[in-house]
TrEMBL record:
<keyword id="KW-0732">Signal</keyword>
<dbReference type="Pfam" id="PF16974">
    <property type="entry name" value="NAR2"/>
</dbReference>
<dbReference type="InterPro" id="IPR016605">
    <property type="entry name" value="Transptr_NO3_Nar2"/>
</dbReference>
<comment type="similarity">
    <text>Belongs to the NAR2 family.</text>
</comment>
<feature type="signal peptide">
    <location>
        <begin position="1"/>
        <end position="23"/>
    </location>
</feature>
<dbReference type="GO" id="GO:0010167">
    <property type="term" value="P:response to nitrate"/>
</dbReference>
<protein>
    <recommendedName>
        <fullName>High-affinity nitrate transporter</fullName>
    </recommendedName>
</protein>
<keyword id="KW-1133">Transmembrane helix</keyword>
<dbReference type="GO" id="GO:0015706">
    <property type="term" value="P:nitrate transmembrane transport"/>
</dbReference>
<comment type="function">
    <text>Involved in nitrate transport.</text>
</comment>
<dbReference type="GO" id="GO:0042128">
    <property type="term" value="P:nitrate assimilation"/>
</dbReference>
<keyword id="KW-0534">Nitrate assimilation</keyword>
<keyword id="KW-0812">Transmembrane</keyword>
<keyword id="KW-1003">Cell membrane</keyword>
<dbReference type="GO" id="GO:0005886">
    <property type="term" value="C:plasma membrane"/>
</dbReference>
<feature type="transmembrane region" description="Helical">
    <location>
        <begin position="175"/>
        <end position="194"/>
    </location>
</feature>
<keyword id="KW-0472">Membrane</keyword>
Amino acid sequence: MEFRGLFLPSLLLFSCLTATCYGMVTFSSLHRTLVVTASPTPGQVLKAGEDQITVTWSFNQTFQAGTDSTYKTVELKLCYPPISQVDRAWRKTVDDLKKDKTCQFKIVAKPYSSSDNSCTWTVERDIPSATYFVRAYAYNSDNVEVAYGQTTDSQKATNLFEVQAITGRHVSLDIASVCFSAFSILSLFGFFFMEKRKTRASQQK
């Protein structure tokens, strides 16, 4: 019994040390100290490869001065809200940020500044059709997440916008396809013409 009483606390201590060594960071442990806004209006549909998003972010001044003293870089990401995660395990939200699939698309990463930050980003061509919001993560000098901010509420249900993925073929591909088809037809006619000439020549001999 004595051994068991010593074993369990030791096991818990070992687990905590293991988690620390591997640098596990949970989203629930982060404070929302960044104020983030994005240009799309709620429900707006953006076209991938064409439309742009302007994002601004700053430190929330309601927090105590010096709270952001360890912030070194900020990374903006395009993220899936629950409405775009239904029946899609590959977009699943997990508290462990190393396993979390909520934010899969990087917008930009910049050195941290407490105010007057903004960037304009063209929605990339490979962004899939879905509903999105923007989240910012603040990282320390060890590149570990220490804080965040986002354009939606804690339930990820407000200020959402949509992206419409590129569908169909590109115009240049259509032109290339037509040219290739025409070349193939001409080549076929040329082949039959040459064969016919060879046949006539052999018959004349």
